[in-house]
Amino acid sequence: MTETVLVTGGTGFVAGWCVVELLERGYAVRTTVRDPAKREAVRRATGGGDRLTFATADLTGDDGWDAAMAGCDYVLHVASPLGADGHGGPDALTGPARDGTLRVLRAATRAGVRRVVMTSSTAAATPRLASGVSDETVWTDPDDPNLTAYRRSKVLAERAAWDFMDAYNGGTTLSTVLPVAVFGPLLSPGNASSVDVIARLLAGRPPVVPRFGFAIVDVRDLADLHLRAMTSPAAAGERFIGAGEFRWLSEIAETLRSRLGDRAARVPTRGVPDVAVRALARFVPALRTLTPLLGRELAFSSAKARRVLGFSPRPAAETVVDCAESLDAAPLAAGRPA
Prior knowledge:
Layout lengths: L3 E4 L5 H12 L3 E6 L5 H8 L5 E5 L8 H5 L4 E4 L13 H21 L3 E5 L12 E3 L14 H19 L5 E7 L1 E3 L12 H7 L10 E6 H13 L7 E4 L3 E3 H12 L13 H8 L3 H4 L9 E3 L2 H7 L6 H14 L9
Parallel strand pairs: 1-2, 1-4, 2-3, 4-5, 5-7, 6-12, 7-10, 8-9
Antiparallel strand pairs: 9-11
Helix pairs in contact: 1-7, 4-5, 8-12
Family: Belongs to the NAD(P)-dependent epimerase/dehydratase family. Dihydroflavonol-4-reductase subfamily.
Organism: Rugosimonospora acidiphila
Protein name: Aldehyde reductase
C-alpha cells in the first residue's frame, strides 16, 4: 500500500520541494494550507496529481489537525510563522512557532504517526560569540540579546518539541533537521523566503556588498535530507544539520557576475567598511539585526547527516546560479525595495 505523508505549510519554499520529492518517490502526500484558495496554486507548482490532497489547518489554532493527520504514516513539519522582527512584540513569532509545533506533535501522536521530522534551523545551534564550526551538540542561548525574534522562535520551538517527546511514551519518534541559509530554484514566485537575498543582489540593492556571509544549502538537497530522516531507523531521536559550503556575500556576488553575464549586470561589486555598516544600522532596523553577524565566519558541520543518512549537498555555486536563473525566469528581482 502507498504510504501517506503529511507536509505542513504547503505554500512554503522548503515544504513545496518536500512535496515534489515525496511525489516523485511514489508517496501519497497531504499538505496543509491556511487558505483553501491556495490549493490549486500549490498543485500547479508541485505538479501534484491525484496523490496530492489538502487539509486546512493553522499553527495558531487546534481546528483541522486531527483530520489532517488521519491515516498518515509520517509527518514533515516544515511550517513556521514568519514576520518582521519588532512587530507584535517578542512573542509574536515565538508563541505560534512553539505552540504550533506542540499542536502538530499532539495530533501526530494521537494519530499514531510513525515519525515526525521537524524543520528547525541552525539558528537553534549557534554559539553566542565564537566563530568556527558548529554542530548538533550546540544549542543557541535563547536569552542572547542579539537574537532576532525569528531566530529565538526556532530555538524555543525545537526545545519544546524535544521536551514533549521526553515526556511522551508511545510509538511516534521525532527527528529534527536544522538547515542553514536555504537557496535554490523557486517553484513559484510566491514562496521566495531566503531567496530574497539573491533577488536583491540581482537588482543591485544595496549598491555595495557588506561583509556578511553564511553557509548555504540547496532546497532540493534539504528536501532529500528530510526524506532520509523520515525513513532511516538511525534518525529517530536525532538532530541533523543540513549545510553545505560557507560563502561570503562578496563571493556570491562574484559567482553571479561570472556565471550570468549581462543578466547580473546590476550585481554590486564594491565592498563597504564594517564601520559604515554599523553606522547605517542605527537608522535601518532590518540591518541592525544583522550587525552581530558582520565579519563573522560561522560554518556548520553536516558530518553527522553525511555519516548517518548519506546526505550529500551540491556545490554552493550551482545552488546560487540555479536560484538566480529561477528568479530571472520569474522575474522577481525587478523593482525590489532596498
